[in-house]
User: Which sequence fits this backbone?
C-alpha cells in the first residue's frame, strides 16, 4: 500500500529528475501520471533509448535501456555469454538477457526509502547508463551479426 508520504517522496524525486535533465539540456518526454521520463540519444555508434520510472510503491528509481536489436536464434548462447562477461566488469547496473527472445536490456536502480536522492546521483545514473550502453551495444551487435567472435569479445572487452 502506497501512503501519502511515499507518494510525496516519489513526486519529489521525479521532479528532481526532470529538473536535472532540463539543467543538463536533455530532450526528454514526461509521463507525469506514471512518474516516467523517456529519452533517446546516440553515442559513438548505435541509438540508445532510456526509460526512467520513479516507483512510489517500492521507493525506487528504475532506469532501463532496451538494446535496439535482438540476438538471432543461432547467436542466443553467444548473447548470454557476452552479457555475462560484460556484467562481470560493470561497477553499477547490469544487462538483463532473455535467451528465449535474444533481447537485452540495461538496468540500473537506486532506492529512496526513508530519504531523498540528490540530483547528482540522478545525473550519475544517467551518465553511467549512457556510457555503459554505448560501451557495449556495438560489441553485442557485432557478436549478434557474426562480425566479432566470442573469443575476440572475451579477449578484448571482458
Assistant:
Amino acid at each position: 500500500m502506497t501512503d501519502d508520504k511515499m507518494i510525496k517522496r516519489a513526486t519529489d524525486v521525479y521532479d528532481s529528475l526532470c529538473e536535472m535533465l532540463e539543467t543538463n539540456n536533455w530532450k526528454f518526454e514526461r509521463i507525469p501520471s506514471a512518474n516516467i521520463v523517456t529519452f533517446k540519444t546516440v553515442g559513438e555508434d548505435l541509438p540508445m533509448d532510456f526509460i526512467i520510472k520513479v516507483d512510489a510503491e517500492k521507493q525506487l528509481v528504475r532506469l532501463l535501456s532496451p538494446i535496439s536489436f535482438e540476438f538471432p536464434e543461432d547467436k542466443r548462447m553467444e548473447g548470454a555469454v557476452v552479457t555475462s562477461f560484460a556484467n562481470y566488469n560493470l561497477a553499477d547496473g547490469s544487462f538483463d538477457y532473455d535467451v528465449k527472445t535474444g533481447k537485452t536490456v540495461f538496468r540500473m536502480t537506486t532506492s529512496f526509502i526513508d530519504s531523498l536522492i540528490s540530483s547528482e546521483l540522478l545525473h550519475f545514473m544517467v551518465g553511467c547508463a549512457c556510457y555503459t550502453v554505448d560501451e557495449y551495444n556495438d560489441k553485442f551487435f557485432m557478436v549478434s551479426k557474426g562480425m566479432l567472435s566470442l573469443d575476440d569479445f572475451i579477449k578484448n572487452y571482458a
The first helix runs from residue 4 to 23. The mean pLDDT is 95.
